[in-house]
Design brief:
The protein is an alpha/beta fold. It has helices at about 10-30, 35, 70-95, 100-110, 150-190, 350-365, 370-380, 385-400, 430-435, 445-455, 485-495, 510-515, 525-535, 540; strands at about 1-10, 40-45, 50-55, 60-65, 120, 125-130, 330-340, 405-410, 420-425, 465-470, 495-505, 520-525.
Length: about 550
Amino acid sequence: MIRITQRAFDPKTSGQLESLHAAFVRIIANKLPPSVAGLYATPKASADGSVQWLTQLTGQPRPYAELPVAEAGRLKTLLFERLSALRQYAEALEKQPDHDRAAVELLKHASAEPPIEAIFSMNGQPVLLYWNLALPPDPKRQVLAAPVVPIAATAVAAAASPVLTTVWRWVVALLLLLLILFLLWWFFCPKSWRVSPVDQAPVPSTEVIAPPLASQVTPPPAVPAPPPPVAPPPEVRQPVEPEPPEPPAVRKPADPPVPPEEPVPPLVEVPEPEPELLRPPTPHVEQPKPEKPVVVPPKVVAPLKPPVPKVITVDNAKTVCPEDRPAALAPELIVVFDASGSMRININATLEEEDWVIGVLNDRSLNRLSPSDQQKFVRLHQEPTRIMTAKQATISLLQRLPKDVGTGLVVVDDCPTARNLGRYAPRERGQMIAQLSQLAPNRGTPLADGLLQGGELADGVNKESTILLVSDGEESCGRGANVCYVARNLKRQKPHLKVNVIDIGGVGAANCAAELTGGKVYTVNSVKELNIGMDRAAQDALGPAQCKK
């Protein structure tokens, strides 16, 4: 299961959350779709009152308050659809004569408008940590209001639906009746009118027509006889002189056959100009070549610097460029870096794969693994490993910090205590980068002590201090070590200190440190997510993007 977050409660409240969730699961078991049943995360309470929430959904948990507007709207729609299904089931259960009143009351409470702080998104799917009445009343706790549904439109649609259903039934019956009548007419009616004009051509009649009677025949009009022919006068012939004989014709020899010539385009005769019309040739003048258009690059307008407040304080110094703020108020960044043995695992490994690797190493059964398991073990230790990726992202962040930001480094790599490598002035930042580059995975994870020593390096009173806690594991150096207890005391002593957690793999062991100090948790499972989370976690130290670093 994926850990969503961890929060601290009163021990009584944490135990009550577990019992309420167990009762809720029993009531809806096999009664509602899996999407509704999996809406609420499973709480896992500890003896100190801290509660971890787990879910079967995959992805990176994101609080509802940090989602973009469009994504928050889609998540809100899905959330209230599932809460509506839960509420409808409660109403149906209430109508049963022998229903359980406590179960109905629990379902109504669970389907009410949820607290905003308890809403998370897992790959676009809503997940709730608890419902509003599962905790003691708190007027400051904000709830997410249900989307407003227009009542008038719903009532009109509900009233009109029976009428429309009746009308459609009559329309369908009428269409079926017309279809039956058409088929009857087509197969049983005479086809004479459907015969084409060609089929209606006149047929020769066989009727014998009698000749007309003589009395009925009109005689033709009389035609006058032609005049007798007149004899032509006798022809007088003149004597004809004999013509001289023609010379014999001389035959020419036959010309040889001429092969067919290819067609030749007709020649156009150009008359020669007269001498007096000849002119001297015109000198050749080269035409100027067209010049290429000059492309003027668009002017790059430098981003405007953020306005400088009239009074620069500890709270607003992080929004001012380094050249405009006093060096004494510049924020600082303390890095608590986990270099334990689990950091040698591949960055894309899941929690189940990590547990499998740790089990193999603890049992010393590497030589007894099957060939497929040996390949799996090698694959889970290939680059990019967690420590290599985390070192590269941290070094890249340090190289982009403003010139007036101080830094510090604490390494968590072996029990019983962490290694405090001290503070670094801006001009000594190269030394800190060199120390990070040489880190290699070791053994234990003194997480609570590392956070304590990082808090000792931080100011947190006269300037904003951010502790960047980069870790992939839980506390492994003693049962008495408590990260939540250390974070609560640090916040009490240093009000301007907060802890931002880079949670590699989604273990969630140090998430309470962020919640108790006003920081944030960035769960990462890939190189891209790690780089993005690192920049967001150090945003206060990086300062405005428009400033010169």
